[in-house]
Amino acid sequence: FKNVYLSYAPEEPPVLKDLNFEVKGKEKVGIVGRTGAGKSSLIASLFRLAELEGEIIVDDVETGEIGLHDLRSKISIIPQEPFLFSGTLRRNLDPFDSYKDDVLWAALEDVELKEMGLLAHINEGGSNLSVGQRQLVCLARAIVRNNRILVLDEATANVDPRTDELIQKTIRRKFADCTVLTIAHRLNTVMDSDRILVMDAGSVVEFDHPHVLLQNETGYLSSMVKETGRMMEEALKTVAKENWELRNSATTL
């Protein structure tokens, strides 16, 4: 991201202001911030859902120089409200018949939905599935597409803890070689990230490993962690510290 500004209408003030940061290939980045901080607008800019100033470069290519269809087909997203349409589970996973059945079966097995079967009927919007199942279908779709960039837009905000854990575990296993951007309300889903990007009022205010950010007791992330309550605060700090120590021990081996 180079000098990125984004407004949803020409006469409106920008919702993203002078963003300058780089995410490395295969990096797992958590994106946090209070309501209205610009988290979802950041993702909108990546998909070019609105006009922007500045440059967003993916794999040495400026996103404005490639077609929208090509750009969006290279990035998988699991939104908070999964998009599912009326038809078979197979059609929801592979609407253009691009993949063989064994690829789809393997993806269903990864998300523990194999017993549903590829011919299971899905209602419009997935109304005959639970919230968790809808998210898992979207995750299976992302596994099938096997893109190098995965975006989770508050994807676990509405699911039960067990499904949340399954989603996190599957992402760590299946997308280890991908760049993963996770927008999260619940800090526990991103405290083991390689780095956390903290947004406030449309700007990036902090960007580093969570353990490093938490050393600044008056910082933005520290403030958000403290607001979770004493027990959760200690748990979050422990996860961040253990991940930091694990990373450092791995680099010194």
TrEMBL record:
The listed locations are: Membrane
Q: Give all residue intervals belonging to the ABC transporter domain.
A: 1-226
> Might you report a single GO cellular component term?
membrane
One of the Pfam families matching this protein, by short name: ABC_tran
- Regions that span the bilayer: none
Q: Any idea which UniProt keywords this protein has?
A: ATP-binding, Membrane, Nucleotide-binding, Transmembrane, Transmembrane helix, Transport
Q: What GO annotations for molecular function exist for this entry? A: ATP binding; ATP hydrolysis activity; ATPase-coupled transmembrane transporter activity
Tell me yes or no: is Transcription among this UniProt entry's keywords: no
Q: How does it sit in the membrane?
A: Multi-pass membrane protein
**Which family does this protein fall into?**
Belongs to the ABC transporter superfamily. ABCC family. Conjugate transporter (TC 3.A.1.208) subfamily.
Protein name, as recorded:
ABC transporter domain-containing protein
